[in-house]
Structures are given as structure tokens and as C-alpha cells.
Amino acid sequence: MTAKIRKFLEECHPDTPCLVVDLDVVAQRFRDLRRALPRAEIYYAMKANPAREVVSLLHSLGAYFDTASIYEIEACLDVGVGPDRIAFGNTVKKQRDIVRAYEYGVRLFAFDSRAELSKLASAAPGADVYCRVFMDGAGSDWPLSRKFGCEPAQAAGMLEEAGRAGLVPAGVSFHVGSQQRDPRQWDVAIKQCAAIFDELSTRGVELSLLNIGGGFPASYRQPIDSVDVYGVEIRDAMVRHFGNRSPRIIAEPGRYIAGDAGIIQTEVVLVAEKSREPDKRWIFLDIGKFGGLPETFEEAIQYRITTPHDGSPGGPVVLAGPTCDEVDVLYAAAGYTLPLDLTAGDRIEIHSAGAYTATYSAVGFNGFPPLSEYYI
Length: 376
Ligand SMILES: *Cc1c(COP(=O)(O)O)cnc(C)c1O
Description:
The protein is an alpha/beta fold. It contains 10 helices and 19 strands. Strands 1, 12, 13, 14, 15, 16, 17, 18 and 19 form a 9-stranded mixed β-sheet that branches.
């Protein structure tokens, strides 16, 4: 936890649960990634944390923005981001939203199907488009593989078609899966993309853009490499597969920029001993899956947790949220242990919780209000 967050929690003692984000960390992460990937334009994936404070800070640092909806586009424009710095990166868009984005001046769009391509051709004539190719998400804790991307073999044909339909076939994109702990996965993807560039080149279409997606990790329970290691792997892969004719590169970090900047403070509501598993205490918190922690689904994202009793003897626990839904259990199998002294009323911290939390919290399930947020 940063000194700034610690001071804020001590002095303001906000109601729990709450998310506190240190904007200095957001800025630092942005600079670290820019240093690791000096040739890439950094498009912040807004969905990770779309708070106005975060967007406007990143805008002031020279970021571009990857958006998923017309609402995110409008939120960017609202803080003064120019439309030339915004990509409409969702491959699933309503036609009327494409029209609106185009009217605002947005000229960079993603697609991964023929049907989406024809929407773009009629709603965004002359715009730059890139085709998202499928990656299997191997090595990542939160794969984004099932829903998005076409087979690499389809990409060349669709990009060629884009050109015939009056669009600019700009390039190719991929996402190696979120919280990607294996930096070598980019090599696999970049190799596939280079083959698409080559294939199109033989058909007389020269692509100019490679979008290497997000996936850069935050610091959860499992160890991760520094972003510089990712930078080296990606730069080496570019040289291996593109030689000295590297296209323009776009990266779309979300989790990496916002994750480590935030802490959730939560209160223990109940410590219960259940007779079925006598030596495993159930710790109920005032935040759960519906309060902003849905990434604990299948215990995929395992947050670091600290308590005021750390250092004293501990034991195994099941961690659960406060709502009356059976699925509102955070961790039962992941092997969490917490101090035996932990009691109701204790405040504990969930670390690296700045991404994919606040906007995921339910509006009022069981009457619990959405997670409150502080940006300092
Ligand atoms: C979610 C998403 C990102 C951000 O992914 P992270 O793993 O948070 O870095 C980037 N690009 C696209 C297209 C996305 O959908």
C-alpha cells in the first residue's frame, strides 16, 4: 500500500467497502510501460477503470484510448481527448453507435467478422479498420479467447474485402489474455500476424498497423515478471518476425495501468465456524462478487490480502461476500489462510484492486450500494 493511500485511510476513515486509487501509481505505470515499449502508442483500455480522474490524468500524459462503447467514447471526449486519439476497439458495435463515433471524428475501428465489416463500410466510410485474430489465452489468468477474434486464415480475406468496401485495411490486432503471466505469448501472436501481413502483401495490400492488445499483469498472489521483461520479449519478437519493416504498433494496457494503483478496504462482518469443516473458518466480508470482485469467478484472479493481525498465527479460511447468493464466495479452494485473531469489525485490505472492480459492482443487489471510490 502506498504512503498516500495509508494516510488517506487513517485520516478519512471512509466507510467500507471502498476503493482508493493512488493516481501517482497510475502515472508511474503509464511511464514504465512507455519506457518498456518506446515505439508503441499506448491506448489505455478504458474498461479497466474508466474513472474521470484516471482518464484525464492519462490524457495529460499523452495516452490514447481504447474504448468499447459509445459511452466510453463520450467520456473521453468529455475530458478533452481528441477523436484522433480514440479507437473503437470492440468488435461488437451497434450500427448507430458507429455512425455517432464517426460523426465525432473517430477513425479507427476493430472488427472480427464479415457482418461487422459491412456495418463499418456503410457507417464509417474511409475509416481505418483492423481485424482481431483469435488467441487461445494460454498462460493468462483471465482469458479473453472464447468471444473475440477470427481465425488467422480468415483475416487476410476480410482485410482485402475491407479495402474493396472503401475502408482502409490498417492492420491486425490480438489479445493474449488478461493477466498474462507468460511474456513469450506475444511471440506466438506476433508471428501469426506477420504471416497475415506477408500474405496480404503478396496480394498487393500493405498493412501498416499491429495492435498487440493488453494482458500486461498486475501484482496479485502469483509472481510476475517486470514490464521491462515484457518489453524485451515483444521487441525481440517484432525483430524476429517483421525484421526492419516494423509497422506502427499499438498497445492496449488496462489492468497493468490501473490494477496496482488501487486498494479496497473491507470490513469483516462475521467469522463463522461451520461444523462440516471445523478447522476452516468462514470469513464474511462486506464486499463480494457483486460488490466489485467478480474476477474471483472460479478463483481466477487471486488478490493479495492483508489484515491488522498479520504475523500472528493463522489458519485456513473460506472468504465470502455479504449477499444472500450462493455464488457469492470469493475463495474456497485457493488455499487462503488468515490470522486466527481476525474478528468482526476488523478492516482488511485487498491489494492491486484498481482494475475491473468498481465498474463491475452491482447497482444494489440485496440493497448494498455500489463500491465507493476515491481518487487521490
Ligand atoms: C480488455 C481489453 C484490453 C485490456 O486488457 P488488460 O488485460 O486489462 O490489459 C485491451 N484490449 C481489448 C480489445 C480489450 O478487450
